[in-house]
Amino acid sequence: MKFKDKHIEKEFLNKGYVVLQIFDKNEILKLKSRYDEHATKYLDDEGTTHSTCDTLDFDLIKKLNLEIGAIIKPKLDEIFDSYAYLLSSFLTKEPGGGNITNYHQDPTMIEGNTYISAGLWTPLQDTDKTNGCLRLVDGSHRLGEILSITPSFPTIFRSFEDKLKYFDQEIKLTAGQGVLFNNKLIHGAYGNNSMDKRIAVVTALKSKEAKWVYYHREEEEKKVGKYLMDSTLYAEHNHGKKPKGPFLGSFEYTFSEVSYAEFLKFMFLNNPIQTIKNLFK
Questions:
Q1: What is the number of helices (H) and of strands (E) in the chain?
Q2: How far is residue 155's CA from residue 266's CA, in Å, rounded to a whole number?
Q3: To bridge 110 with a disulfide, which of 73, 151, 193, 210 should be the other Cys (CB 3.0-4.6 Å)?
């Protein structure tokens, strides 16, 4: 992924995320209209978090991807010199609280470490701690190599997950602002304790030169399987299940782990002033 603004690119590569202006007021109204048009098909139980993809209505997923894509792709073209687009969908946190998103790293969507895959998270209303803003651990995409697979895997931070709250950054955004983050970045989100839905557009992106792939291992399988992925296959993917794409092979993989002492050392070297502030939260 190559940015037109090299200062923004440097910030993204260093911190693992960057805040960008994505939608204007008219575009937000259009997107809300698209969302409302299909509201009866969403899983809207109180206190839940759900995506368009959770409907498993593949025609709807593809339709909304085209409609959102028509709005967001021109914006992305203004930001990037080169990138590849996979899919956009709506992600909703219903009111009612209790729907905290635990710390995690998003699924690995490309091969190797040469290129980047990223998520763009753009809320359609102002977001803060009250209604479920993101919380990101600055620089954690450089913490160590990790393969994020489905349906689950041992995280690199599994021995100190309870301490990450002292190191994260609350990303407060106004409607139409988006946060672009490396899929390797450790992140989570607060629950929605407001009276309204928190709706965001989520978009999957990568370096143009990379190939979209997906890694999955069933519980009874000892090896990780690698599958080819594209926009159509992803739109028809039942997340957490084995992908429909062509099977590219399997391999053994040992999931690495970082100790809390190693994490502290990394964070101090990465950003000593912010780390000290975080420890006194």
A1: 6, 15
A2: 17
A3: 210
